[in-house]
Each structure stands twice: as C-alpha cells, then as structure tokens.
Amino acid sequence: MRRPVGTALVLLSFMAFARGGAPTLSGGARGGVQSQVEITAEPNHHQVFSNNYVRVFDVSAPSKASTLVHRHNYDYLFVTLGDSDVLNTRVGEKPFQLLLKDGEVRFTPGGFAHSILNQSDRVFRNITIELLQPSTNVKTCPTSCVVPTPCAAGKSACPTVERLITADQWTLNRVTLPASATLEKHTHEGPHLAVAISEFNLTQKLEDGSTREIHSGTGGFNWVKPVVHTIINNGSAPARFVALEFKEVRQNHP
Length: 254
What we know:
The protein is mainly beta and 254 residues long.
C-alpha cells in the first residue's frame, strides 16, 4: 500500500490559532457569509488518489484548530483513524459535535459546505473517499453485521468481516485479521479500495500461486482490480482495514 506524503501546509493553515482564534479564510467573510473553498483547495485535505470511481483524501487537522470552510460536491465515506472529538459546522446550520471511534466509518451525502474544529488534544485524521458516481439505497448496519468467514484455525485466530454500509453500487466491509491469521481464498468480483486502519504486514496469495507482500502504515491504501486471493497476516498484532468494493456492472446482451 502507498502512504501519502505529508505537507507543511497542514501547519500553515492553522497559524491563526496562535491566539486561540479561527483561521482567516481566503477572501474573508462579507455580509455574514464565510468564503468557501473547494475540497481540493482546503490545505488539510490532501488528495492522494483518484480514478473513475473515487477521489481519496488524507485529512489531518491539528489539535484545537479548524479547517477552512470547504465544499463537498459528492457523496463520501470517511474512515476515522484514532478516537476523535470534532465540531462540525455546516453553512447555514447549527454546529454539532461528532464523537468518533478509531476505525469508525460513516457515509455522508454531498452537496454542502462545512468546517471542522478539532476539539481533542490529538491530531484529527481520517481518510475521506469521495464517490464520483451516484449512490442509491445506502444502508448502514444498525448492529453487528458479521459476514460468515471460513476459518481452519482456532476461534481466537479467525478473521472477522463486518459489513458496515451497503448501496446498490458498492459494499463496505471492515476486516480484522488476528496475528498469523489467514483470510481464506475469496473472490472480489468488482474492484475495491482497501484502507488500513492499523499498521500491518500481509501476504497476498493469488490463484496462479504467486505471492505479494503488502506493508502499510495507518491510513495507507491500495486500489485492487477484481481478484481471487488469500490474505495472510504475517505480523504479531491484529491487522485492521476496510474494503470498499464496487459491484460488477452486468450488461445485458441481445
């Protein structure tokens, strides 16, 4: 998996917080309306990948600081990296608090602008995944939605696959592989984006017998074409990641 390169702009955009105030937005505020920037121009949103399906941003906001007001023109998912406490302020709406857990994933319909204030004592980080095609019939699993997964090892070493969110066009699962565990041979009929919630060292075994080592830090990602494979955790700690898989489009032929 690739790891996005950091940038000093993360700190520069928060210099206005030296005296406890919010950063001055480009263009300022006129007539009580704050200026807005596109998400690609918000200094704390670093675009790290894009294709016809998604645009991926590595988001990092320092403690006690706010982002610029920025627009979300597309529906999106975000993967929380570390427990977080943020104040979400949408333009024209009352601010509301978001208490997020490490590894939590949420879906948000686009078409709004907002800023995020990090209220915690640690950096707020997430991976934001813009969905460039419309999503319909989006449903979040209300309780535990564990997907049955083959396991030849003892129960403590079995992988866990949770189906968190589904749509007509895609499915999002969260996977936990205990140390030395194996996610047995399985098929991805469509392409998928994998995002690391934890650091890990994995081995991917393909149908032809070839293998590939996958090393990732937290927030690393990988775009994978349709594949049949087996995944093995080579590390001494659990490996955690989410997989956003797009459903294969079947064409009807006369």
